[in-house]
Amino acid sequence: MKRDSIALHYGYDKTKGEGTMAVPIYQTTAYDFGSSEKAANLFALKELGPIYTRLNNPTTDVFEQRFAKYEGGVAAIATSSGMAAIFNSIVNVAKAGDNIVISDKLYGGTVTLCTHTLKRFGIEAKVFESDEASNLEELIDDKTKCILFESLSNPQISIPNIEKIVQIAKKRRVLTICDNTVASAALFNPINFGVDIVVHSTSKYTTGQGTALGGIIVERENLVELLKDNPRYKHFDEPDESYHGLVYNEVGLPPFTLRVRLALIRDIGCAPSPFNSWLLLQGLETLSIRMEKHSKNTLKVAKFLEAHPEVTNVSYPGLKNSTYHKKAEQYFRDGLCSGLLSFEVKSFEKAKKVIDSTKIFSVVVNIGDSKSIITHPASTTHQQLSEDELRNAGISPSLIRLSIGLEDSDDLIEDLSWALKQ
Ligand SMILES: *Cc1c(COP(=O)(O)O)cnc(C)c1O
């Protein structure tokens, strides 16, 4: 099956139920095993099947299988949010005393998770320069457990040198985790470029209409080759006392997502609701056509802004003069660059004026909705930072970020044109 067909059909067998075209919502917490023997087999992994919705659920299962296949992986585990997917991926390999190496351009929540919350867990985060990965290798030591980066970063809208990151990671046998939320699984598949683990906030483009919070972790084929006999990941080769001595590398199932499910989600929770999994399945079915329209609309808006006298700078990898244009053409399907763009006007006051004057754009801190969104990082998400800190984060006081939706691009351009005149 090709990708667009996978998004509609994979992982669901209509003939096994009532023949319903839509995947049923199994809104249940638990399952009747029928016999003590069947229950024991399920817990011992001798048979695979639902046990309790914190661990697995038939609706979520279809979403996981379909998303994994669509993203080019072999297994996936869905979580209650994108942050839960990122947290579980990191702590699946790193413990107190270890370190992780993270990109200098990451989503704000990921930055605070890595630099503040994980620090209290005893995990240190070292920051590498991501555009060229120039200092990545020197930061890796024996205690380094993963390299974390975003394929298209939010909010800087930059693209890292993924080939170089992967090449260094393979040489040093360190796990790579790529947050592919902004690029989306429709436009880019990091696993095809050698990445080990892909995470998403499915709350953004996957759900598509701003209706369901969710996250997912996708594992590449044959990850055992990295995890086995690797001193960094001994816990995958050793018996897990908490699961009657299970050795993850020897079960014969994809070990990374298996451990997240059996050890982490079991103990930490953050499982998705079956209803959200169903909403995310609806979103996935139309993801690729939506991403095409998001990208085409955004390029039109970016070109309009680039030519506007009140605009001093536009960041969008789809523009020919963008620093990231070459990488976008190399990595992203048909050179489509998703729906996020930022631009600067002449002053902080002007930025606020533009935001308050738009009519179609909503002032919201979200991205990936089918409705267009406008945000002013300096007065909202990054309000607490000093001017110096703002500059280091790549955010000027007059920066405006847009998440372009699925409206008619003429209406979006007319709205921005009017707002820029105010
Ligand atoms: C939104 C976002 C997250 C966090 O996801 P939630 O679903 O909101 O928890 C992580 N990474 C990126 C790139 C995001 O845009």
How would you explain this protein's 3D organization?
The chain is an alpha/beta fold. It folds into two domains: about 5-280, 3-Layer(aba) Sandwich (Aspartate Aminotransferase, domain 2), CATH 3.40.640; about 285-420, Aspartate Aminotransferase, domain 1 (Alpha-Beta Complex), CATH 3.90.1150. It is about 35% helix and about 15% strand. It contains 15 helices and twelve strands. The protein has helices at about 5-10, 35-45, 60-70, 80-90, 110-120, 135-140, 160-170, 225, 255-270, 275-285, 285-305, 325-330, 350-355, 385-390, 410-420, and strands at about 75-80, 100-105, 125-130, 145-150, 175-180, 195-200, 215-220, 310-315, 340-345, 360-365, 375, 400-405. A seven-stranded mixed β-sheet has the order 1-7-6-5-4-2-3, with helices on both faces. It has a five-stranded mixed β-sheet with strand order 8-9-12-11-10, with helices on one face. The longest helix is centred in the last third of the chain and has 20 residues, at about 285-305. The chain is globular, with a radius of gyration of 22 Å. The termini are far apart. Bound molecules: pyridoxal-5'-phosphate (PLP). Pyridoxal-5'-phosphate binds next to α4 and α5.
